[in-house]
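Blinded run. Sample ID left blank on purpose so nobody reads anything into the name before looking at the predicted structure. Input follows.
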Amino acid sequence: MTSKTNSNTSNTLPQGPKTFEPQTWLTTEQVAALLKVGTRTVCNMITAGKLKSSFVGRRFLTSARNVEAFIQAQEQDFTQSE
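Blinded prediction complete.
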């Protein structure tokens, strides 16, 4: 009895992206300092869905990219209302 080996299978994991850019995660206190608002205001924006965030452990963490997107969206809303 002969066994066939499949040359297409390998024991390695699939290759992911060649470069990995880690995200910077900010606490509600850090976001509040950047936006010059209170931490309660940041929590309200998160729960209202205006600012994307992740609940990790017992705190909200927001990526710097999401803060930038929030700021850009606010700027667009402001320029459209003029």
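Unblinding after everyone has recorded impressions. The chain is about 45% helix and 15% strand.
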